[in-house]
Design goal:
heterodimer; A: alpha+beta; MetI-like fold; 3 domains; two-stranded antiparallel sheet; 12 helices; B: alpha/beta; D-Maltodextrin-Binding Protein, domain 2; 2 domains; three-stranded parallel β-sheet; 14 strands; 39% helix; disordered N terminus; binds glutathione
């Protein structure tokens, strides 16, 4: 690295003249300075909090929470700790986010394709949808679904009967719910394994097709592969499942599982809203594919649908994925609007109730911010990985 | 180096901002008004009327503080804060006094960096249900959906109560009383629970107030009172003694109507209260007319009560626990001397 014309300095000062080392030293110094500043600010804050008589530290996480939560994906009761309440809130945030990311992506793609459809009416309708949904504030849309659509549903005693086993009322969607006596976990894990297997198989089949030109009945074989492990697990673990059927009792339905109206309203609003933005990204991505590609594909005799699927979309993906990533991250952050309709997400359970009951605003807000940050980073890592996989190879 | 200037400046400002806070009384006098955190959504306690004038028990208490400090009950700025924000608003100095249906509890007193000045209204948590449900007692509420406000003592009490009676419930938790009321009113929840006074207040905002009843069970103690930032005893003394002055005035029979006549009273307790004897007001850092101004400009406790929540108002609350100790209630103020 050193310039051969100048003599090499000796001793420690050599480090300062080496460009590489200089960069490392500068970075380390900058890092140390930032760390020192943060530590200083932290200490100062701790002292000030103490002086103001405000509790601090993370000990509160082990204390008993003492409040109930309406939707809990893991075991939770009022006797659980604040740490447990945190996980309940986080899982609720992740649950609604995951559902909405999947649904809004599918819907967004459909709408984006529809907007470009040669069918005038379909294209127009999709266009109107996108414009309306993108221009009405999300908060309003959430309140609309919650207060104008779901709340006016009949009370439990007059619930809409869906086939005698499920009911829709202003308490939500009440469904039969499986209650595993044993083997639930094994079957669940086996199902996940089966899905992974099917996915791997599909990827392999595609590569094989590219290599040899021969295609396999991917869907049928994949379904078989996905179904096999859970079936096996079921038999081996001698799984027992009891379906709990909801029935009216007193105020409400007993038994079964309930999808709370807060979840439904939030999921609908977030999905429909985000799908509007994704549709625009998809449309832009597709329009960025040169026309020549389409014409060339068509002249090979491919049907329009296959032109889309095999030629246009794979190329459009490279344009679509980066903005899609940011839509997904925005969706997770938007899910924190849940608090206005009482969906028990992280903001409501942790940055709301827990913060108020313990008074530890600094710690709780810091944890909450870190969590949203971490979720965003994970999403962007996954999408970057996917983007790399989709990128044109050999360029 | 430029990159580091911004964070450095931020840290410095923070440190300076912390160091620069003087006594609250001086701050209040400098800015010329008391900044008062109120709910804004509980008729009878704090809510603007049709003309946009703030009305209520909590509001009038803040006016009394302004009257004590400035001799002018209008030198107060009302800042609506939600149940969730209220303590932070006080801690950060956005408000000087919090007067917002707030329950005095140990955790709040010890860990939230605030001090309670006393009890303005003795209350307890109750349940409201629609008459249509045909429920007569809270013990019949097993399995109910219950509408609750976030960051309240309510959230905990209701969990305790249901657990103690072997019952279950589904909480639906809202940030604002408006949403909670709408959701209860439209039937998403069977029950609305908060302080009994709050129930009476919120009932007046419902589409059909007569359709709802408040169940007889009172499941907790909710002493509601004004709070101030911890660590400024002069200011907490002023707020505390404003409350005591209101109660003592009622006990001594001093009202806004007769206070000028009372200046001629021979009763030494009245003379001390109205600043004719001694320099009690100055000891608080105020003028000796402080309590005279409070009663003259705002009224005594009984007047404030009757005007805002008493039997002649839509809330129709009897004095009950909030009667003077001489009338079988709990109101008992230390002497002004
Ligand atoms: N006293 C309880 C409950 C306070 C509370 O929930 N107040 C409600 C009902 S009285 C309220 O102020 N709602 C109006 C609003 O949110 O603005 C506490 O201090 O936690």
């Amino acid at each position: 690295m050193a310039d051969p014309a100048t003599p090499e300095p000796k001793g420690p000062s050599r480090l300062l003249h080496d460009r590489r080392w200089r960069a490392v030293i500068a970075q380390a110094a900058a890092f140390a300075l930032v760390a020192a500043l943060l530590a200083c600010a932290g200490l100062n804050m701790a002292r000030n909090l103490e002086r103001a008589g405000i509790a601090s530290g993370f000990g509160f996480l082990d204390q008993v929470a003492g409040f109930e939560i309406s939707q809990t994906l893991i075991e939770y009761s009022r006797a659980s700790t604040y740490a447990r309440a945190f996980w309940v809130g986080l899982l609720n945030t992740l649950a609604v986010s995951a559902v909405c990311i999947a649904a809004s992506t599918v819907l967004g793609f459909l709408l984006g394709l529809l907007r470009l459809s040669p069918n005038w009416l379909a294209a127009r309708l999709a266009g109107v949808y996108v414009e309306v949904v993108r221009n009405v504030p999300l908060l309003l849309q959430i309140l609309f679904w919650y207060i104008a659509v779901l709340n006016p549903l009949p009370p439990p005693r007059q619930a809409l009967d869906l086939g005698g086993v499920a009911y829709l009322c202003n308490r939500g969607l009440v469904l039969p719910w499986p209650q595993w006596e044993r083997g639930g976990l094994a079957v669940g894990l086996a199902l996940a394994a089966g899905l992974a297997l099917a996915w791997g198989f599909a990827a392999w089949a595609r590569r094989r097709r590219v290599r040899t030109g021969r295609s396999l009945p991917v869907w049928r074989l994949g379904a078989l592969l996905a179904a096999l492990p859970p079936a096996l697990a079921w038999a081996l673990a001698d799984a027992r499942v009891e379906w709990s059927i909801p029935a009216l009792s007193g105020f409400n339905f007993r038994g079964g599982g309930t999808v709370e109206p807060e979840f439904i309203a939030l999921a609908l609003a977030l999905t429909l809203y985000t799908a509007g933005f994704i549709a625009e990204n998809v449309r832009a991505g597709i329009q960025a594919v040169p026309r020549g590609q389409i014409e060339a594909a068509a002249s090979l005799g491919l049907r329009p649908w296959r032109v889309m699927r095999l030629v246009v979309v794979p190329q459009a993906m490279r344009v679509i994925i980066p903005p899609l990533t940011s839509q997904h991250m925005t969706l997770v952050k938007n899910s924190s609007l849940a608090v206005v309709i009482g969906y028990p997400d992280l903001m409501s359970v942790f940055a709301g109730t827990t913060l108020n009951q313990t008074g530890q605003a600094v710690e709780i807000i810091a944890i909450t911010m870190l969590v949203y940050l971490a979720v965003s980073i994970v999403i962007s890592l996954i999408m970057n990985w996917y983007n790399d996989a989709m990128a044109l190879k050999g360029r | 180096m430029k990159r580091f200037l911004v964070p450095l400046a931020a840290v410095l400002t923070l440190a300076l901002a912390c160091a620069a806070s003087a006594g609250t009384l001086d701050d209040v006098k400098n800015k010329g008004f008391v900044s008062a955190g109120v709910s804004g959504k509980v008729p009878g306690f704090s809510a603007p009327d049709q003309d946009g004038v703030w009305r209520g028990l909590d509001v009038d208490f803040c006016r009394a503080v302004a009257a004590a400090v400035f001799g002018d009950p209008d030198k107060v700025k009302f800042v609506p804060v939600t149940t969730k924000e209220r303590f932070t608003a006080l801690q950060t100095g956005e408000i000087d006094v919090l007067s917002r249906n707030t329950t005095w509890s140990l955790e709040r007193d010890a860990a939230q960096g605030i001090d309670f000045a006393g009890v303005l209204f003795y209350d307890g948590q109750g349940f409201m249900v629609s008459k249509k449900l045909g429920v007569k007692s809270a013990r019949e509420l097993d399995g109910a959906s219950i509408c609750i406000q976030i960051g309240t003592t309510t959230e905990m009490n209701v969990s305790d109560y249901f657990a103690a009676h072997g019952m279950t419930f589904k909480p639906v938790v809202f940030e604002s009383a408006d949403e909670a009321t709408v959701i209860y009113d439209t039937g998403r929840a069977d029950v609305y629970t908060t302080d009994a006074s709050g129930l009476a207040a919120r009932r007046t905002t419902m589409s059909n107030p007569d359709e709802h009843i408040i169940l007889p069970e009172i499941i907790s103690k909710e002493p509601l009172g004004p709070a101030v930032r911890q660590g400024d005893s002069q200011w907490s003394d002023i707020v505390r003694w404003t409350l005591f002055a209101l109660i003592n005035a009622e006990e001594l029979g001093v009202t806004s109507a007769n206070v000028d006549e009372m200046l001629k009273s021979e009763n030494p307790a009245v003379k001390r209260l109205l600043g004719l004897d001694g320099n009690l007001g100055e000891q608080l850092g105020l003028t000796n007319q402080w309590a005279y101004n409070v009663v003259k400009l705002v009224g005594n406790y009984g007047e404030i009560y009757d005007r805002n929540v008493g039997p002649a108002t839509p809330l129709k609350l009897e004095r009950g626990l909030n009667a003077l100790w001489t009338n079988g209630g709990l109101l008992y103020a230390p002497p002004v001397r």
